[in-house]
């Protein structure tokens, strides 16, 4: 199966950078997900950089291939157009060298929304490393395997668990409660993310914030990373407050309100601008070879 993406798109760069957040950049581009009730392995390769053209191979072979390709397009942000953002960024002394260095860099979306929402809950008020370790234990205990890749559990795998089942993975009782409640809502259909696409950002943030365990930071994080809404920024995030202060305020840690004010001029690409700043910051902190 093949996917034609809106360019520019440097998939190898994007893959190495995004996977470096797991501690070490992965060379082979492969993801795992549930498709038609089966754990599925998907290998991804960019076979033409000019168009750009991606080839995806799944095992087992994906049923409903048209829907599967559409789903992979979402995961890869295949239809994200970078050039309008680049044209604006080239006029800015901070962003101009960054978009030049990372031309074609795109973020990825998680394989499914349940995984994204659980990720957001686990990352509330703890380090990314600690949250990742907790999720790995959840996946090892309640998920599945396809070849050598773990597959994140589905709502049905979590909905009937006890709080203690998740607490044994390192979650607090409160977060375990939130995740089990979320799984139940999604399994019953009461939470139907298919209806979210028509909602504007503000309304969707309010809706997600109404669920137990989900505040504004969590909702904004889900919109940006999970739904690919590139104008949304979880501005209360400490890391983002430090990041924007580093680049635009001589290293000062800004308040949430100050972050929103600084980024206002970057609408409708505020979240994308933050993503590129993070890329540059990680390159500075880690070194070019490690970051890429």
UniProtKB/TrEMBL annotation:
Primary enzyme class: hydrolase
Family annotation (Pfam families): HhH-GPD (PF00730)
Catalytic activity: Hydrolysis of alkylated DNA, releasing 3-methyladenine, 3-methylguanine, 7-methylguanine and 7-methyladenine
The keyword DNA repair is annotated on this UniProt entry: yes
Superkingdom to which the source organism belongs: Bacteria
GO cellular component terms attached to this protein's record: protein-DNA complex
Domain HhH-GPD positions: 122-281
Gene Ontology MF term list: alkylated DNA binding; DNA-3-methyladenine glycosylase activity; DNA-7-methylguanine glycosylase activity
EC number, UniProt record: 3.2.2.21
Ligase keyword on record: no
Family of the protein in this entry: Belongs to the alkylbase DNA glycosidase AlkA family.
Name of the molecule in the record: DNA-3-methyladenine glycosylase II
Source taxonomy: Bacteria, Bacillati, Actinomycetota, Candidatus Geothermincolia, Candidatus Geothermincolales
């Amino acid at each position: 199966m093949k996917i034609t993406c809106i360019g520019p798109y440097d998939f190898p760069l994007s893959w190495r950078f995004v996977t470096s957040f797991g501690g070490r950049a992965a060379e082979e581009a492969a993801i795992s997900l549930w498709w038609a009730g089966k754990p599925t392995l998907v290998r991804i390769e960019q076979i033409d950089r000019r168009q750009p053209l991606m080839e995806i191979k799944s095992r087992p072979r994906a049923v409903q291939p048209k829907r599967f390709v559409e789903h992979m397009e979402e995961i890869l942000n295949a239809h994200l157009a970078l050039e309008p953002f680049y044209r604006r960024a080239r006029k800015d002394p901070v962003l101009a060298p960054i978009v030049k260095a990372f031309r074609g860099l795109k973020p990825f979306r998680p394989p499914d929304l349940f995984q994204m929402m659980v990720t957001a809950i686990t990352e509330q008020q703890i380090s990314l490393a600690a949250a990742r370790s907790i999720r790995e234990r959840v996946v090892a205990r309640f998920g599945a395997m396809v070849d050598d890749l773990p597959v994140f559990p589905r709502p049905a795998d979590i909905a009937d668990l006890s709080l203690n089942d998740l607490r044994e993975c390192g979650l607090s009782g409160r977060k375990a409660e939130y995740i089990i409640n979320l799984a139940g809502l999604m399994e019953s259909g009461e939470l139907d993310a298919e209806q979210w696409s028509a909602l504007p950002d503000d309304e969707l943030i309010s809706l997600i914030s109404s669920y137990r365990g989900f505040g504004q930071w969590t909702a904004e994080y889900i919109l940006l990373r999970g739904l690919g809404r590139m104008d949304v920024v979880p501005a209360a995030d400490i890391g983002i407050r430090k990041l924007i202060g580093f680049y635009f305020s001589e290293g000062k840690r800004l308040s949430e309100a100050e972050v929103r004010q600084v980024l206002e001029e970057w609408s409708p690409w505020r979240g994308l601008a933050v993503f590129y700043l993070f890329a540059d910051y990680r390159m500075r902190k880690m070194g070019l070879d490690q970051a890429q």
